[in-house]
Design brief:
Number of strands: 0
Strand content: under 5%
Helix content: over 70%
Oligomer: single chain
Largest sheet: none
Shape: globular
Number of helices: 10
Structural class: mainly alpha
């Protein structure tokens, strides 16, 4: 009974406050409505932007699949610029790098991928982006930098098979750069941590070849 009476008293006081402060109450309700409307408009605008970005990505992907790489490259570049920040635009950045590699433009791919990784992309794209960066750096005759990118790709993915393959790529490029100690370290990690993956067998072969190779003269 006491609780019910207390609630009733609060209701009465609230009504009295509104009567005495009608202008303030009206402005408060209007402000809340405005904030709610703004949030709804922002959310729907973002949703529409994502939809338009997905459509643009689909069109650009179609050009790439049809073999029209110059058109795909142009469409993807424009799409990334127009819809930056959307998930589709981040996916388009990776597709653009693949197209640039197919067009023998690794330097462009390196620049775009480094900029993309510096922008803190979605977690799902960090592994593939570093993997593509490794491939682009390898194509640019920068094996040591490629090895570091491949290792970063491995550390950014949760798929064991993909992670193991990135590490094998890292070992291969470390070896190509002449850093046999780092190459051996990576191969040994694959053999120890990824025994059930096919990449472990490749790592064993490459590690054996590495140990058979005569040391380079200083």
């Amino acid at each position: 009974m006491a609780i019910a009476q207390g609630i009733e008293d609060l209701d009465v006081r609230a009504v009295e406050w509104v009567k005495k402060n009608r202008r303030t109450a009206t402005l408060s309700v209007a402000a809340l409505a405005l904030v709610g409307g703004s949030l709804w408009f922002w959310w729907t605008a973002q949703e529409r932007r994502e939809i338009f970005a997905e459509r643009a990505l689909s069109t650009a992907r179609g050009s790439a699949e049809a073999g029209n790489l110059p058109l795909a490259s142009s469409d993807l570049s424009r799409m990334v610029s127009t819809y930056g920040g959307t998930r589709a635009a981040q996916e388009a950045t990776l597709l653009l790098a693949q197209v640039q590699l197919l067009q023998k433009q690794p330097a462009l791919a390196v620049g775009n991928l480094r900029k993309f990784l510096a922008s803190s992309p979605r977690e799902e794209f960090r592994g593939p982006a570093n993997g593509l960066l490794g491939a682009a750096l390898e194509e640019s005759a920068q094996p040591l930098e490629a090895a570091k990118a491949y290792e970063a790709a491995a550390n950014a993915t949760s798929y064991k098979g993909v992670e193991a393959q990135y590490l094998v790529d890292a070992g291969r490029t470390f070896a190509a750069a002449g850093d046999t100690a780092q190459a051996a370290r990576v191969y040994e990690r694959v053999i120890k941590e990824f025994k059930s993956q096919s990449a472990a067998a490749e790592a064993e072969v490459r590690l054996a070849e590495l140990r058979k190779s005569p040391p380079k003269e200083e």
